[in-house]
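Data card: per-record layout.
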Amino acid sequence: MIAAERLSAREALARLAAGTLSAEALVSACLERAQARAALQAWAFLDPQQALSQARAVDRAGRPGLLKGVPVGVKDIIDTVDMPTEHGSPIYRGNRPYADAACVALIRAASGVVFGKTVTTEFANRHPGPTTNPHNPAHTPGGSSSGSAAAVADFHVPLAIGTQTGGSVIRPAAFCGVIGYKPSFGDFCRVGVKMQSHTLDTLGIIARSLEDVALLRAVLLAQQAPDPVARDSAAPRIGFCRTPAWDEAEPATQALLQNTAARLAAAGARVRETALPPPFDTILETHARIFYFEAARNYAYEYEAHREQISAVLRETVLEPGRALPLAAYIEAVETAEAYRRHLDDLFGEFDLLLAPSAAGEAPPGLGSTGSARFNGLWTLAGTPCLTLPAGTGPRGLPLGVQLVGRRGRDRALLDAAAWVAARL
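The structure for this 425-residue chain is written out next.
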């Protein structure tokens, strides 16, 4: 029998519903795993008694709701009324919000156990936290949802919430060998989540199965039941999009994507190459302009009142360049982004999904950087749903992933197509 802490959320739900597992026993097993693997440093806040108290309350209530006591990790830029929310910054050390973020309230309403707060990079930006990669502690877990990806990959929790402004869900999930899902922009409510860029910020889900993604997606959308993932869906039309950053992909990633495209075509998918037209050759720079301009203004309080407590990398590479960016350049970038989204809407008349790299390669060595988001920012800017699937390992034995991108507002179709792809990887 699979140990409780290694169950997917769906597997745990089956045992919880059958009465062969209690929420307290499930959470206790996850706590034992998290404590045994404390050196991973996935958690910014973890109070075992608080987690167990929540689980016991769910058991006493008869385990109602979609989650029935399943534990969920919550990124530490998301407000929790009963736990600190510190944003990975000394400015907010000990900060106690007055209310839960909307996503946390929905998790609690579904009888989910808010297990603890996962480590984030400073303000979900570039300065890394202490979390290490569960496959090799000498390597980064990615960021900014570092703790969320590491905790799910290392069997501390089956589900976690992250956020993405550039590549902060997809990249760490790929580096840690799990599934990361960024929904269509605006699908998940961001009330109570520290804002970095109002045009780009998106809540996301990290899990070990597509069924678990669908489950937590239903919770965050306040649905009564998740849509089942259709693993027998028709073979999709796939556009192989190398993206403008293809030359930055490591040889192992380039080979993985090319082999995946060939493999899916042999399995019956209609695969052909596609590329962004020349007007969007610099779309990653468009993303950066919007990101820097908005972040510089959204962090006005921190910059003006606590500048010395902001890392040099955030201050010098994002906030100060963002403040110096002319308004006209920002407006031009917003207009380019709108045209880009319309182009992709048209492109999805030809394809059901796009296949692209999840990251440049394996998790880089060292903890001083969380890796490049160059293969993610263009899809965050597009507002399209995307997810990464584990797809083998690279030359260092660390996980590699492939990224699937769907049409805006067609997240369910993307999950179904991803199930078809996953069954053939």
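Known properties of this structure: The chain has a mean pLDDT of 97. Residues 86 and 92 are 5 Å apart (CA to CA).

See the next section for split statistics.
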